[in-house]
Amino acid sequence: MTQTVELPLWLFVLIVVFAMVTFASHFLFPSVRWFFRRRLERAVARLNQRLQRPIQPFKLARRHDMIQRLIYDPQVGQAVQQHARETGMPEAVASEQARRYAREIVPSFSAFAYFSFAIRLARLLSNTFYEVRLSYQDEESVRNIDPEATVVFVMNHRSNMDYVLVTYLAARHSALSYAVGEWARVWPLSRLIRAMGAYFIRRKSGSELYRQVLSTYVRHATEAGVTQAMFPEGGLSLTGAIARPKLGLLKYIMDGTSPQGRDVVFVPVALNYDRVLEDTILTRAALGTERRFRARIGVITRWILKQLWRRLIGRYKRFGLASVRYGRPISLKDFRAEGSDDVMTDLARVLMQRIQHAIPLVPAPAACLLVRDNGPMSEEDALSRIQQMMERDDPQTKDNSQAISSALDQLVERRILNRQGNMLSVSGQRSDLLDYYAASVPADSGIGVSASAK
């Protein structure tokens, strides 16, 4: 036992390396993870004290644990067996396919990334591109939502800036969990989006197994009280008007609740912009059948650099107003108690009606509709009429003259309207954009054809 053993140097180094790895994996790494986990838990506890809706433990669970919980759910297990029978594949192969779907769907939420980075970036981008306004149809009802209820923000989809804008404005309420389409599945954007708690969905998946895995995840999140945000239109509006709702995600949320369980409260959120960043792409897509909008990093980077250059040389201008309005909430329990024959379809219709009714009036779309339907008019007349309509739409904001003038200048610069002397008229060069913005004006805005135009 006391004899000397000689070893080659390379073997001795290899033994030492293996010993160090074993020590680190069994003693050092768990201690380090425990240390940072405790710090994170204390930070989240402090953060929850200032949030109206605290972050649920479900969002803070490890991604691996969430995937395992999803895979072993009885609903997914039955779907795996059914898929194996229908396709003739071994059940183990079907189970692995379900696991791949789960890894694709489940986010990896980071409270640090969300509140230390994402919120600040969202605030910076929102205020850099737009003058942001927030209003309520019934602020008291939004603030008095049951603290134990699962809140789902239901929004019209005008731009990919919707994600950024609502994330920034909802930062005082809670961390939002979005359903994000295929457009964001590009590195490194996908990693950032997962860290913000969003989950990816396939808009047109024909796989019943995939739909069952997605439905199970949404059910778990809803049962756990996770604050969610959804776009029932399923994609960006190509015409500027609100499109018909798609019921898939709404069905999953409703299936994830029971009359005896946690209530779900839907909060309609209406957005409108003086300028939609993707308007040219959207109006071009409206002429065809292709509506895939992948976020190509090169294109985005060039556009950002162009805006930075304009800022450096003093030629940068913000894109006008970005206005967000919260509508009147709907309790799922109360809606079900009304005894509707088709709860899901009727709820979707009421939600879209409330979003439509809550859409805020902003100057550029109002000017497009006003000049298009009334013909040439003086700039003073247009400014006065838009000012009156905006005051009627939101009495809290009294002086909109600067915002209206900037919007008119932007429309002229983009050749949507034409200015000759003091008269504004339709230019005829960008009729697609003229109709696109005019379609976003609320139906009850009071913009009509004047007697002189008739």
Textual characterization of the structure:
- The strands form two sheets. Strands 1, 2, 3, 4, 5, 6, 7 and 8 form an eight-stranded mixed beta sheet that branches.
- The chain has 454 residues and is α/β, with parallel strands linked by helices.
- Helix 4 packs antiparallel against helix 10 (208-223) and helix 16 crosses helix 17 (379-393).
- The termini are far apart.
- The model is unreliable at 449-454 (pLDDT under 50).
- It is built from 19 helices and eleven strands.
- The radius of gyration is 26 Å and the shape is globular.
Keywords:
454 residues; alpha/beta; eight-stranded mixed beta sheet; three-stranded antiparallel beta sheet; 11% strand; disordered C terminus
Any chance you could write out the topology, listing elements then pairs?
Layout lengths: L8 H42 L6 H4 L2 H9 L2 H14 L3 H15 L5 H19 L1 E6 L2 H5 L6 E6 L5 H9 L7 E4 L8 H7 L3 E2 L7 H16 L4 E3 L17 H8 L8 E10 L5 H7 L11 H16 L8 E6 L3 E2 H6 L5 H16 L4 H12 L2 E2 H15 L7 H13 L3 E4 L2 E4 L4 H8 L16
Parallel strand pairs: 1-7, 2-5, 2-6, 3-4, 3-5
Antiparallel strand pairs: 6-7, 6-8, 9-11, 10-11
Helix pairs in contact: 3-5, 4-5, 4-10, 5-10, 6-8, 10-11, 16-17, 16-18, 16-19
Average pLDDT rating: 83
- Secondary structure class reads alpha/beta
As a whole number of angstroms, the C-alpha radius of gyration is 26 Å
SSE run: HHHHHHEHEHEHEHEHEHHEEHHHEHHEEH
- Apparent shape: globular
Strand content: 5-15%
Q: What's the N-to-C terminus distance?
A: 110 Å
Given as residue ranges, the uncertain stretches (5+ residues, pLDDT < 50) are 449-454
**Residue share in helix:** 40-55%
- Helical element count? 19
Strands, count: 11
Main sheet overview: 8 strands, mixed
